[in-house]
Amino acid sequence: MPVRSLPPVLLLVFLGTWASALASTPAGPPPAPPPSPSAPVDLDRVEALLSHLSLEDRIGQVMMVGFRGTVLDEEVESLVRGRRVGGVCLFKHNIHSARQVARLNDGLRRLLADHIPPFVALDQEGGNVVRVSDQVVRLPGNMALGATRSTELAYAAGRAQGEDLRRLGFNMNLAPVLDVNLNPHNPVIGIRSYGDSVSLVSEMGRAFARGQQEAGLVTVAKHFPGHGSTSTDSHEVLPVMRETREEVLTQMEPFRAVLQEGLDGLMTAHVAIPGLTGDSVPATLSPQVLEGLLRRDLGFDGLVLTDELEMEAIVQRYGVGRAAVLAMKAGADMVLVPWRPEKKTEVYEALLDAAHEGELPPERLEQAVRRILIAKLRRGLFEAPPLLEERLAAPPPPGNDEVAHLIARASVTLLRTKEGALPLSREARIAVITAEPSLGEALATRAPRVTQLTVPAYPSPSRRAALRRQARKAALQADVVVVGVINARQLELVTAAAATGRPVAVVSMGLPYLTEQVVEARAVLAVYSYQPAATDAAAAALFGEIGTPGRLPVNLRELHFGHGLELTGRKQAAATPGLSSSPASPSSSQEAGR
């Protein structure tokens, strides 16, 4: 894409970060664009709207619901229009194409055309949480962004994603993730985090949220006050943070930093924080956390949405209906109930009963609905969008499709390499063993003798022995082997390939912590993502087309935050098939700390 075709913010990115990636020079954090103030809200209009809502309407407004299927039917209409819900959240099972979901979103809005327009939300985080895959930028993900150290790229990512989602009729995104991934064994955050540095997560989160909000999308960051140090998944059990009050407050710093930018909303975490609250009540249901810490101490007056109330961390102890009442009493403004139809009925009736009986005070319900209305007015939900066909016919803003590639190429991190291991020779016989086909495809477009063994990401125990044999066979027929690692299931394939004596290069497309277990590899690259932009960047780096400017956004046991090697030359050697003589040099200590 010609430089002149990029909009101003991406022109700066292109001239700075893209050039840095090609030159193999780590990009420092350029100053992010200044925040723009939120659109003023007519508070008299808010009060007028509020005064016309019945109690049943107000209960509907505080509900964010989901449903099965990809089209509107009587069941969906009964739920959305019948309950007059405040928001709808779509998931992967609701989406099979951009055009289809744009029509679905328009239909959802029409269901409430004579009432309060709904939030139409999704959680399009990038990386391994992508709901819409076509006609939108597919970001490599937060940890890849953390490896770039570029707040300008983070802003561009939020802006591009917000513009693309708005074009499809979404008006809310449940992102970014602001959890600090302090636990390498965290089962639910991982590469969804920018890293394990509080300051890095704070700066990247601020820039991303600002970009997404400036694109007009209601931005709900998550999971307050932090889920990054836990060792269990709240979908299954209630995680308990064992840290002291001071440690919890430190982990919460990214949320405080983003709140200062005028964040629209926060999603709560189903985690117990006894060091902060003195009990085992989940943060989602805790007045000490929501009304005390968030509202009083941090001064946040934006929207608070719960995480899914149907998670086992909540269901096991409280039940969904009771939890909805407790969450509202604690200070939440909306409750997320996305799955079973009977649970939506349970929540609606529990909230209505609590309001009738006085357990849910009218002023608390009114306060919640007021915040919902303010958010909807601020982001223009009451304004009719352009016609659907006009939006679909219009191409995305120039440069949006380049953002993912800019991030991916700036994030490539060379963790270790032996002399002569990189770059690969284009004349070599290269065997690619991977669970992500796009890695092999990216290599095959660059070299004529690439063969690919595509393996399941999560093979059954009965298949593992056969896969090891296939990996060994593929390696024996090659000069060099590239193994793409997404999760721990691929580690034994690295061992099987290396046992043949063939040189092995590993591309880590998931958690970088796994790279410490591939001791047999002669070169190890981390790209933190299996999205196509990331696998293409990995292939480009393996062949020496680009440098390796990324820096570790987390600490490993032996490699520390900020580590990253650079190839100092790209002249290929003819002596060893598949390899070159280009040495790698470590970054300077000054560069490593960026």
Automatic annotation (TrEMBL):
It comes from the Bacteria. It comes from Stigmatella aurantiaca (strain DW4/3-1). It catalyses: Hydrolysis of terminal non-reducing N-acetyl-D-hexosamine residues in N-acetyl-beta-D-hexosaminides. It is an enzyme of class 3 (hydrolase). This is beta-N-acetylhexosaminidase. The keyword Hydrolase applies. One of its GO terms (biological process) is peptidoglycan turnover. Residues 55-373 form the Glycoside hydrolase family 3 N-terminal domain. InterPro entries: GH (IPR017853), Glyco_hydro_3_C (IPR002772), Glyco_hydro_3_C_sf (IPR036881), Glyco_hydro_3_N (IPR001764), Glyco_hydro_3_N_sf (IPR036962), NagZ_Beta-hexosaminidase (IPR050226). The lineage of its organism: Bacteria, Pseudomonadati, Myxococcota, Myxococcia, Myxococcales. Keywords: Glycosidase, Hydrolase, Signal. Residues 573-594 have a biased composition (Low complexity). Its EC number is 3.2.1.52. Residues 1-23 form the signal peptide. Residues 412-556 form the Glycoside hydrolase family 3 C-terminal domain. Pfam families: Glyco_hydro_3, Glyco_hydro_3_C. Residues 570-594 are annotated as: Disordered. Belongs to the glycosyl hydrolase 3 family. The gene is bglX. GO terms for molecular function: beta-N-acetylhexosaminidase activity.
